[in-house]
Amino acid sequence: MDAMSERGLSRRLGRAKAGSALAVAGVVFCAGVAQVLSEVIPAWGMADEWPRAGVIPQPFFVAVLIAGLALACAGIVLARLHPVTGWLLAFGTYGALLFALDAPGWLDACALPLAVTVFLLAERGPVMRGLWVGGVTLVAGGLVHWVWAVGVAGAPTSEAGLFLVRALAAFAPLVSGGAVLGALHGRQSRRADAVRAEAESLRLDQERRLMQAREGERARVAQELHDVAAQHLAGLLSLADAAVDLSDDDPDTALALVTEVRAEGRFTAASIYGALSDLRSPEGERVAPTPGVGQVADLVDRWSARRTAVELTVVGDATELPLVVSATAYRAVREALANAAKYARGAAISVSVVADPTQLTVTVENGSCHATSRGEVATTGLGWGLAGLRQRAALLGGVLSAGPTEQGGWRVSVQIPLTEPAATEAKAAH
């Protein structure tokens, strides 16, 4: 989130807090006015029931009391953003009305906004601080009542003590209730904020992991695209070369090969389109599963259908291999078959898969080359080829070797251990 967005969010939160505080202040003010009127109406016109009768006119007394109530409620709005200042305003208004009107029994309405500011101040910190806020307010309130009783009303000490007890009996429940509720509400709010922050952190971490997994899958599909192109294009070249060689001596066979080239080309286009679709797929879609050693037999069948003599030998159980090991071996076989079809056209090819408890060995060997020397293989290809597979095998603790045989052919062999390095890499791939 940039600085401008943070400032905008801060302003919106500030307006929301101010709006909620204004609503609370309005409710408290209306409740206070109702309480004032409930005391004023029965005593209206009875001079003996009014404080400072003959000194302060009754309408003026009521107006000052309601104005003081409004000022104390303004402390609620201020306390939402500045708790201490709002509390001081509400408490100061209560004390000023006490000394100005000489009417402690008429100030219950002004004690309610003071209790709300205590609540707002107590919720800002730990529970103990909230309790301290309530205690300080009670002590300060008791001191103000004592000073008024002794200094203004001139009551004896014994009567002042009794007055203080009665005043605190009405004053203390509101203030202490505001302090306790504010402290508890603040603690619950902080806990809820911590839970929300943790949930947001977990969500962001999950999104990051998911993004990494998607990027890894896209990289896999990109390599799959290369492998598909290498395999099928090599097959197309092999068929096209054979058709050219047979065009003079056996035109019917050459025409059949051209027909097969067309079918193979369509299949190649479909395969490449499928890989590209996976690469461009929306984030929520799944891509095709990675082929492994279990699909080597299908690979051999496809090459055999192209008049390439391929013999497959499987020793051991190759069905429970780690995914990354199985996929690497499959790609090595596919790359080797494509190269053999192109550079040793017509030569017999043997594929051997040997799986034992400690190691997987895959070997692809073809007879003598007739068309192109293997020295040209390194300068042709489509990008990653055997060099990329050699790197993948090395990451798994294995070895990929490629070189000529004594009979003039070519052998590609991959050996991957099925011990801790491979297992560790397989877990990482999942």
From TrEMBL:
<keyword id="KW-1133">Transmembrane helix</keyword>
<dbReference type="GO" id="GO:0005524">
    <property type="term" value="F:ATP binding"/>
</dbReference>
<feature type="transmembrane region" description="Helical">
    <location>
        <begin position="56"/>
        <end position="77"/>
    </location>
</feature>
<feature type="transmembrane region" description="Helical">
    <location>
        <begin position="130"/>
        <end position="148"/>
    </location>
</feature>
<protein>
    <recommendedName>
        <fullName>histidine kinase</fullName>
        <ecNumber>2.7.13.3</ecNumber>
    </recommendedName>
</protein>
<feature type="transmembrane region" description="Helical">
    <location>
        <begin position="21"/>
        <end position="44"/>
    </location>
</feature>
<dbReference type="Pfam" id="PF02518">
    <property type="entry name" value="HATPase_c"/>
</dbReference>
<keyword id="KW-0547">Nucleotide-binding</keyword>
<keyword id="KW-0067">ATP-binding</keyword>
<keyword id="KW-0472">Membrane</keyword>
<feature type="transmembrane region" description="Helical">
    <location>
        <begin position="84"/>
        <end position="100"/>
    </location>
</feature>
<keyword id="KW-0808">Transferase</keyword>
<dbReference type="GO" id="GO:0000155">
    <property type="term" value="F:phosphorelay sensor kinase activity"/>
</dbReference>
<dbReference type="GO" id="GO:0016020">
    <property type="term" value="C:membrane"/>
</dbReference>
<dbReference type="Pfam" id="PF07730">
    <property type="entry name" value="HisKA_3"/>
</dbReference>
<keyword id="KW-0902">Two-component regulatory system</keyword>
<feature type="transmembrane region" description="Helical">
    <location>
        <begin position="160"/>
        <end position="184"/>
    </location>
</feature>
<dbReference type="InterPro" id="IPR011712">
    <property type="entry name" value="Sig_transdc_His_kin_sub3_dim/P"/>
</dbReference>
<keyword id="KW-0597">Phosphoprotein</keyword>
<keyword id="KW-0812">Transmembrane</keyword>
<feature type="domain" description="Histidine kinase/HSP90-like ATPase">
    <location>
        <begin position="328"/>
        <end position="419"/>
    </location>
</feature>
<dbReference type="InterPro" id="IPR003594">
    <property type="entry name" value="HATPase_dom"/>
</dbReference>
<feature type="domain" description="Signal transduction histidine kinase subgroup 3 dimerisation and phosphoacceptor">
    <location>
        <begin position="217"/>
        <end position="282"/>
    </location>
</feature>
<dbReference type="InterPro" id="IPR036890">
    <property type="entry name" value="HATPase_C_sf"/>
</dbReference>
<keyword id="KW-0418">Kinase</keyword>
<dbReference type="InterPro" id="IPR050482">
    <property type="entry name" value="Sensor_HK_TwoCompSys"/>
</dbReference>
<dbReference type="GO" id="GO:0046983">
    <property type="term" value="F:protein dimerization activity"/>
</dbReference>
<feature type="transmembrane region" description="Helical">
    <location>
        <begin position="106"/>
        <end position="123"/>
    </location>
</feature>
